From TrEMBL:
The keyword Transferase does not apply. Residues 119-138 are annotated as: Disordered. This is MerR family transcriptional regulator. It comes from Streptosporangium longisporum. Residues 1-68 form the HTH merR-type domain. Keywords: DNA-binding. It comes from the Bacteria.
Amino acid sequence: MLIGELSRRTGVHTHQLRYYEAQGLLEPDRATSGYREYGDDAVLTVIQIRKLLEAGLSSRQIAYLLPCVTGPAPDLEPCPELLDTLRARLYGLEEQIDALGRSRDALRDYIDVTERRVSPHYPPCDATAPEPEPVPAR
């Protein structure tokens, strides 16, 4: 199948499929016309890549793990270093979550302290100061 058909069957844009190819995640054959030709197994490979990306893995990590991947879930064969790679990524995510939690707590503290100081005796803020970026509602 050509790249457009693979895109249609997987819902992944052609430029993303070309990126996967450049990263060594997909290996199409080339027709005599020069067009990329993908086998039916490419659909499963793209599904696996998308699922691994959703798990927060980089394309480099996916290239390393892809030989251990089976099925659409994807299911993983217990290849050497597989668990080390997955655990390292999980640890990195947990560190980021902890850092975000600390940032959230610090911002809450700033807001609490500032709100307690709000008084009609304080002059209004400088109207010439740049507007702060809007914060999305929760």
